[in-house]
């Protein structure tokens, strides 16, 4: 039985299925748990979380019983990276064993979160146009009318969490690896800001692709994850 566990938190609008390919690539090295927020996937009948605190509490309840003396890692992409960061401090607050490593992907540090240019104030057409600018997976979903009807409410709910999030500070006491896409509007300098949020080892890795580089580089990303977590395997 593999002792290392990795808990994966999806991007805004994502579900546990978002990491299905990555999970498949990593399963021979670690026990991968893809987490699911309410209102989507297998929990589609449940009410969306209204804020960051609710979402973190929900995620904590999913992993609390899985935390033991064995090493574990939390991975989050985009919105999921902020959830991973806040989940760390929820775990600390509850007095459980802290993760050995966080992997935060495709997002700036939560310390520069901003409510400016709120997407929540836009009507559906304007909201779609802004989301289309991000491209990648979002464009694929919004260009399919049947999928869009189910997907748009999930996206709006998740962006509501992001836009109303207030960073309360905190420094990680674990290793931190940050991943980014070369064509993502986020610069390496912005991603590098995460280095100020950990006392331990910090690494940053860049991949080909945009905001959803993970989907197009599953093999490479999985290899990098295994490399940086080798000390726990």
Supply the number of structural domains. Answer: 1
N-C termini distance: 12 Å
| Class from secondary-structure proportions | alpha/beta
Mean pLDDT across the residues is 92
Give a short account of the largest sheet: 6 strands, parallel
Give me the CATH fold name: Rossmann fold
Strand content: 5-15%
How many helices does DSSP assign? 9
The largest beta-sheet arranges its strands as 2-1-3-4-5-6
Count of distinct strands: 6
Order of helices and strands: EHEHEHEHHHEHEHH
The helix content, as a percent range, equals 25-40%
Any idea what the shape is? Answer: globular
Question: In words, what does this structure look like?
Answer:
With 233 residues, the protein is α/β, with parallel strands linked by helices. It has one domain (5-113, 167-232): 3-Layer(aba) Sandwich (Rossmann fold), CATH 3.40.50. It has helices spanning 20-26, 52-63, 79-93, 124-134, 137-142, 145-163, 188-192, 213-216, 218-228; strands at 5-9, 31-34, 72-77, 101-105, 175-181, 202-207. A 6-stranded parallel sheet has the order 2-1-3-4-5-6, with helices on both faces. Helix 7 (188-192) links the parallel strand 5 and strand 6. Helix 1 crosses helix 9 and helix 2 (52-63) packs across helix 3 (79-93). The termini are close together.
């Amino acid at each position: 039985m593999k002792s290392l566990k990795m808990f994966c938190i999806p991007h805004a609008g994502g579900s546990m299925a978002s990491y299905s390919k990555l999970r498949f690539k990593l399963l021979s090295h670690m026990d991968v748990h893809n987490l699911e927020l309410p209102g989507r996937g297998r929990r589609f009948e449940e009410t969306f979380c209204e804020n960051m605190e609710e979402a973190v509490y929900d995620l904590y309840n999913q992993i609390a019983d899985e935390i033991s003396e064995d090493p574990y890692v939390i991975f989050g992409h985009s919105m999921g990276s902020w959830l991973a960061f806040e989940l760390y401090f929820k775990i600390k607050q509850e007095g459980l064993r802290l993760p050995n490593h966080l992997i935060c992907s495709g997002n700036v540090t939560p310390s520069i979160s901003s409510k400016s240019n709120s997407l929540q104030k836009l009507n559906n057409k304007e909201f779609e146009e802004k989301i289309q600018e991000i491209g990648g997976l979002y464009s694929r979903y919004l260009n399919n009318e049947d999928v869009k009807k189910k997907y748009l409410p999930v996206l709006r709910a998740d962006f509501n969490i992001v836009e109303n999030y207030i960073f309360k500070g905190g420094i990680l006491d674990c290793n931190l690896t940050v991943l980014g896409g070369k064509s993502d509007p986020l610069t390496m300098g912005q991603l590098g800001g995460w280095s100020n949020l950990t006392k331990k080892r910090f690494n940053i890795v860049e991949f080909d692709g945009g905001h959803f580089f993970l989907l197009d580089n599953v093999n490479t990303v999985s290899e990098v994850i295994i490399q940086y977590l080798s000390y726990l395997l």
